[in-house]
Amino acid sequence: MNADKIDRLWAPWRIHYVRSNNKTKKCIFCYSQRPRTKKQAILQTRYSLAILNLYPYNNGHMMVCPKRHVKDLAQLKPHEVLDLFAALTRVQKLLVKVLKPHGFNIGINTSMVAGAGIPGHLHIHIVPRWIGDTNFMPVIYQTKVISQSLDQLYTQLRNAESKNSKRT
């Protein structure tokens, strides 16, 4: 990569965020539990919520969090832990059904020093992975290509989740 040359990857969907005057300091996970216009929540249980990551590391990147605003696993009550991991399992099965990944990265970052972008509200990242999904783009150009729109993915996941809900 030539230092004199600026590389561009067009991402017109980000203009809304860039221009937004109402960038909130509110917790996005607490906000996600309220009615909203953007398609993001895939499933809700009594104590947990699973949402699409609006700035994904890979196609299908989701976050599962407790509805209660806590920053650490140790703050959860036993029934919340069970519900959180049951929701995580449902999300993983849903992603397998819809996207058919070869594996997953599943992780929790607690605190800024551990890499948590939102350290105040515990959340679990679940990132589908495929053989060959890391190619030259991130290595050479520090750019990740996401192959599906969030709207299309949301529709696929919600349709699959509704079918699962009707069977149980």
Strand-helix topology:
Blueprint: H1 15-19, H2 28-31, E1 41-44, E2 48-52, E3 62-66, H3 78-99, E4 103-108, E5 124-129, H4 136-141, H5 150-167
Antiparallel strand pairs: 1-2, 2-3, 3-5, 4-5
Helix pairs in contact: 3-5
Strand order of the largest sheet: 1-2-3-5-4
User: What kind of assembly state do the chains in view correspond to?
Assistant: single chain
Order of helices and strands: HHEEEHEEHH
Total beta-strand segments: 5
CATH topology, what is it called?
Answer: HIT family, subunit A
Structural Rg: 17 Å
Q: Give the name of the CATH superfamily.
A: HIT-like
Helix run count: 5
C-alpha end-to-end distance:
53 Å
Give the overall silhouette.
globular
Q: What class do helices, strands and sheet pairing give?
A: alpha+beta
Query: Percentage of helical residues?
Result: 25-40%
CATH architecture level-2 label: 2-Layer Sandwich
CATH class, named Alpha Beta
Question: What count of structural domains?
Answer: 1
Query: Biggest sheet: strands, sense, closure?
Result: 5 strands, antiparallel
Instruction: List unreliable stretches of 5+ residues.
Output: none
Short description:
The chain is an alpha+beta fold. It has helices at 15-19, 28-31, 78-99, 136-141, 150-167; strands at 41-44, 48-52, 62-66, 103-108, 124-129. It starts with 14 loop residues before the first helix and ends with a helix.
What does the model show?
By secondary structure, the protein is of the alpha+beta class. It has a single domain, classed as HIT-like (HIT family, subunit A). 33% of the residues lie in helices and 15% in strands. It contains 5 helices and 5 strands. A 5-stranded antiparallel sheet has the order 1-2-3-5-4. Strand 1 and strand 2 form a beta hairpin. Helix 3 crosses helix 5. The radius of gyration is 17 Å and the shape is globular. The mean pLDDT is 81.
